[in-house]
What we know:
- The chain has 559 residues and is an all-alpha fold.
- The protein has one domain (32-558).
- 65% of the residues lie in helices and 0% in strands.
- The chain is built from 22 helices and no strands.
- It has helices at residues 20-23, 38-62, 70-89, 99-113, 115-118, 130-133, 150-160, 163-178, 184-196, 224-247, 265-300, 311-321, 324-328, 334-345, 350-371, 377-401, 406-421, 427-457, 462-488, 503-516, 526-550, 553-558.
- Helix 2 (38-62) crosses helix 3 (70-89), helix 3 (70-89) packs across helix 4 and helix 8 runs parallel beside helix 16.
- It is globular and about 70 Å long.
- The relative contact order is 0.17.
Amino acid sequence: xxxxxxxxxxxxxxxxxxxxxxxxxxxxxxxxxxxxxxxxxxxxxxxxxxxxxxxxxxxxxxxxxxxxxxxxxxxxxxxxxxxxxxxxxxxxxxxxxxxxxxxxxxxxxxxxxxxxxxxxxxxxxxxxxxxxxxxxxxxxxxxxxxxxxxxxxxxxxxxxxxxxxxxxxxxxxxxxxxxxxxxxxxxxxxxxxxxxxxxxxxxxxxxxxxxxxxxxxxxxxxxxxxxxxxxxxxxxxxxxxxxxxxxxxxxxxxxxxxxxxxxxxxxxxxxxxxxxxxxxxxxxxxxxxxxxxxxxxxxxxxxxxxxxxxxxxxxxxxxxxxxxxxxxxxxxxxxxxxxxxxxxxxxxxxxxxxxxxxxxxxxxxxxxxxxxxxxxxxxxxxxxxxxxxxxxxxxxxxxxxxxxxxxxxxxxxxxxxxxxxxxxxxxxxxxxxxxxxxxxxxxxxxxxxxxxxxxxxxxxxxxxxxxxxxxxxxxxxxxxxxxxxxxxxxxxxxxxxxxxxxxxxxxxxxxxxxxxxxxxxxxxxxxxxxxxxxxxxxxxxxxxxxxxxxxxxxxxxxx
Length: 559
């Protein structure tokens, strides 16, 4: 067994066995337009609506946020398969549903139901309400709260939920084809789809690559170096660093502070972990930019026509001009070669993603201040400038460890924009809005990059997947607020003694109040430690990259 540098799972099939895609050989793959059928969106609407009701109930009852992506993706896929089987048993499906259609359904349902979480209904959105404002002494003025209406919630969701889709499209080719990141949830979802749709003649042996221990817990399929790093990180953090921070209680920060407030130990956790991931993400982004510039330089390098090149030099020059995807296919398995070819065939042009981002961001920056006068276009512009970088960092982490840190970055946004706007200028409400923008942009981008990985492994067109998620998001922008308002209009909603006490909204409100009071709310040495964490992350990545080029191929294999 061998693993590649990007962390792909071991290739379990040998030369004597048929690969996954060999089993589907001869089955027609429809064009991206034919993958977008009415039955796809009809089933997606039914499943998405049901899942939205369930997730909204859980979210409002327990104020839950899943840093892992396994729950929503897995549940939605199981519900989709159950729905398809039920319709098929009643004879309502004439032609078999293809794995490409199931993939588009999955993207549509995830885009639909994920709005329950990144829409902030259990935390930052309800934290803007007058009911939450009355729970605190500070920030009670009308400039720091708003009345919850269905109309502006729907408009707000339409303004923020589509921007993230355009920011991550250019990175899809890099992470999925070049770096070959795993995206564990999508990896297992794809195997689940491929297994259930294996042609009948192979049905007796279709579990050859799926029912393995790694399919039960995503940690078991992560590269060994990643599992080992988790282990070392746990020892350093919970065995050394956090006990040290705890020992400074009463010295660096007040005693008996809440575990979810920024002026206590939680402030260190938010700042330091975000700095670590930002450091690694920015390094990878910079490295990619350097590689791109170098490739452009090689392609524009003038050819020598007077003095003929030697055969060896000509060969090297030709190799430099070959696209990266063509270089790597020689070392890929049959499955990966076919998947890469199909994925790159229908690539979404970069100008479309850039143009879409600029258009949606401009509309959002102009329109949102009409809904929330406390936040100005310059604040929104700053959030959208940071969004592509944050999305790149988050997508890289997501591809390796299946962690979505959108909510963590959202809390950083509360602190940053709350300090910038100030309490007297509506900093509480403004920071909550800014947090919602960051979380919505990052979460929708995280969903899309995972769905692209799913499309890659099921030979689904990126175009059909993108359109499917866009349509699912449109459905969610209408249905999710309606479901929320059903619960919102229940008696005693938000009351501390009721079933829906909205503890998450209280924490976000308290966090926003502290943030709008300025930098002094951070615990002592928090910024210094965050800067150190950022530099350590950069340094470790630089050492790793230099070692891969300067030391032996063995180190390059396991770095």
